[in-house]
Specification:
Aspartate Aminotransferase, domain 1, Aspartate Aminotransferase, domain 2, alpha/beta, homodimer, 7-stranded mixed beta sheet, globular, 4-stranded mixed beta sheet
């Protein structure tokens, strides 16, 4: 059934005639056609609210306060009525932008409302339709993995992925699998081996996997995240650092892959010898927080082979990259892996968090992977609505198209301002470009915001785009246009 | 404004005339008046659904599938139309039972619906009314602590409580506070000291604080939770094990307190000497998963003194005990502590998770306590409705009254069946009674379920009650009546 709002009326503001003339109509009826600022950002209302909030908790990270009644589509409206084009979308969590009609409808359905307010302990008293939701909503978009376990957030999903790797590793050493010795049962109660074994998780330089203490031990993006925090002494390998454009540096980048893989193999070998074997390897398809760093399909293919060779589970962390932002449902699907990873974790745009997994990574005994809530049915209902819109509106195609437009535009800007920008990179709309210095990056982000464009930072000097899947060409045009004018001012 | 449903019509089933004759009317209009079974539990529909779910994930913990459209008040209806009186309430998470009118109303409000579907990154782009919600909803019920930080689940709240303790401990050693050395900044990136220090968290035997790897290191209730899991080598002290009734064993139990406190002091001292100082002590006011174990106000008062003396933060984990179930908002308020604990964590009945904290336990720098979502505004809106009902219907008083009734009834049964039951204990409705053996406990729980009563287990041989705050005398009567008949059959 075609929805009226898909063919919504295109309003054209005077000052954007040139840009909008080229654009097709918005997917969201009534969406603003351009940013519109009334004050600087943050404005006086945001500044006042900031003071209130900072008395209650550390609020120094707040950029502005928002009005979620007025925000719509790709535009967020702040507490001072500034209308901002949002290419960062709540740290990559909003697939359909703000107030999408399909999202607003979900809880008008009484059955769904009951599922929301009667939130069960899903591992003990799930609702009658929970198995069907797991199958028809979640497994329906699984990257070829037959099992799924839901959790509350990305960090918890990665924590449980680690646990699955530890169990699988130890189970392979047991004869028969699942037989625990009395010594194991007693020693684990006081955190001692053999019950609490000295297994490790291998992660990569600049990786980000969460901020609980175990996922933080696998995170290596910024010191301020890790200072003073007790950590597991787990190993870290170099993540490839490529030269751009990729076409020009094929040989050099391929050597970089080999160097990093050699280090991975060395660690796997040394840690096995040292009786601290690597039970799991965790990696992002594109390092997001750590600098939007890509690695090649070849790198991932060889990494998977090494993981198998040394008996380590391969965990692909798709918390930020999953749910369509790469133009495929899962970013690692661009890598043509021989077989699926052992575990793929998700959260953010998926609303519900959790992980897809192989049969081997499924707990054999009860209560080993368990907690009170085991996720939240309300979030799966939102995901169900999101996936329907993705399909109906062919949003994966739109992401490819808008992503291409954005990437070409960034490359053009890079050529035009080669003394300010470099290394445009990414897949789909998971894009970034480097500024020559961290100071310049911060300045550009600030200027963009004062022109009504919200982007994110990443690594030390990257500008990161993480728009909604409903970002269209006209939005890309506005962004590129304003980015150019910012760079012109700086120049 | 008095609601019509408070004076709802009392329906009286024939076979319960004797019991119901004494009861007042239900707080929930249309609530069933008694359990009503059509099949054994789990019935054929639950069994069929179990098979479906077990293909997708480890589902061995599922007791039955529920119909959340039909469940109401204290009664859960399963997939086979069995009506069960629920004294366990989704592992203690449902303060107002099922489908409470006030909960169903929350998202009929459009502003609230927008807050639900436009879920922001609360640390960066909170809504205009977020500071007010933090203050008027959360701080309004704070146990004398001026700050609150929200999270996604109980385990994440405890993880971040640990982080606060580590930061506070290290900050006290720094001169000036907040000045990080270059060595710290570099070493933390590879999980090495001094940036990643060797601080510890002290927890107690039989404690349960979560299943992420750090909280699991502070959890010591069952081996199956911990086997094969990598753990921090943190210390554990004995939690008091009392003899019951408390009045009869005052002297012995007081000696038990002193023994346990001596061990705590010994650990604090030894770990400081061993350069692995204890930065935080985490404890439940009543150990829930580990056996519904109580400790005296005196024990907690002295524990707080020791924590202060050795510079460790005192974390009271109120995830299961908070939000009114003890007859006070927070269970530790029964202990008359000289000053508030450093941190009080919450989740479950509160819907939103997080922790209240002192000024010292507030991060001074940005991005040290941070994650994408930092909680969920939709859950705070539900909590707001819950707290209004708690106040309006005077539910803390009801908990005291129903709790007293339940406890007296359990003590009576204990006298009547002294060869089957012992050690009735607890505060408010956070109650438990022991069976003489684990096998008997499991048998009793099974029989109770076949009589339409859902309770929980705890420790090795305890029956645990964790009902909603709306449990009334008539529900207590039904439970006690059926418990007696189960015990009579077993006898």
């Amino acid at each position: 059934m075609p929805r009226a709002w898909i063919t919504a009326f295109l309003r054209t503001p005077l000052h954007l005639n040139k840009v909008i003339a080229r654009s097709s109509c918005s997917l969201i009826p009534g969406e603003p056609t351009a940013p519109c600022l009334k004050t600087e950002i943050p404005g006086p209302n945001s500044k006042r609210l900031f003071k209130e909030m900072n008395c209650i908790q550390q609020a120094g990270t707040v950029q502005f306060f928002a009005n979620y009644d007025k925000s719509l589509g790709n535009y967020i409206v702040d507490a001072d009525e500034n209308v901002i084009l949002d290419l960062y979308m709540q740290i990559a969590t909003m697939p359909l932008g703000y107030n999408h009609p399909a999202m607003l409808e979900v809880f008008c359905d009484k059955h769904n409302l009951h599922a929301l307010v009667n939130r069960p302990a899903l591992g003990v008293y799930p609702s009658e339709d929970w198995p069907r939701k797991l199958r028809d909503v979640l497994l329906n978009v699984s990257p070829r993995l037959p099992h799924v376990t839901t959790m509350m957030c990305g960090a918890c999903s990665n924590e449980n992925a680690f646990k699955q790797c530890f169990m699988a590793y130890r189970n392979r050493e047991r004869c028969p699998p699942g037989s625990f010795t009395e010594e194991e049962k007693t020693s684990c109660m006081t955190n001692c081996p053999p019950g609490s074994p000295d297994l490790t998780i291998l992660s990569f330089q600049n990786a980000f996997h969460g901020r609980t203490l175990a996922t933080l031990s696998a995170t290596h993006s910024k010191a301020i995240h890790k200072l003073d925090m007790v950590a597991f002494k787990w190993p870290m390998a170099r993540f490839p650092q490529y030269c751009y454009p990729l076409d020009e540096f094929k040989c050099k980048n391929s050597e970089e892959d080999e160097k990093c893989l050699a280090q991975v193999e060395d660690i796997l070998c040394q840690y096995k010898k040292g009786n601290r074997p690597v039970a799991g390897i965790i990696i992002e398809p594109i390092q997001s927080e750590g600098g939007n760093n890509e690695a090649s399909p070849c790198f991932f293919q060889k990494l998977q082979k090494l993981a198998k060779q040394y008996g380590a589970g391969l965990i692909i962390d798709e918390v930020q990259t999953g749910c369509g932002a790469s133009g495929k449902m899962w970013c690692h699907e661009h890598f043509n892996l021989e077989c699926p990873p052992d575990i793929v974790t998700f959260a953010k745009k998926m609303q519900i968090s959790g992980y897809f997994h192989t049969e081997e990574m499924t707990a054999k005994e009860t209560y080993r992977i368990f907690n009170t809530w085991m996720g939240d049915p309300g979030k799966v209902l939102l995901l169900e609505a999101i996936l329907k819109v993705i399909q109906k509106d062919n949003l994966l195609c739109l992401v490819q198209k808008t992503g291409q437009k954005l990437k070409c535009g960034l490359l053009e800007l890079e050529r035009e301002f080669c003394f300010l920008l470099d290394s445009t990179r990414g897949i789909g709309t998971l894009l970034a470009v480097n500024c020559t210095t961290p100071q310049l990056r911060d300045e550009v982000l600030k200027c963009l915001k004062q022109k009504g464009i919200q982007c994110g930072g990443s690594g030390t000097r990257s500008i990161r785009l993480r728009p909604a899947l409903i970002l269209q060409e006209q939005h890309a045009d506005i962004f590129l246009d304003r980015f150019r004018s910012v760079l012109q001012c700086i120049k």
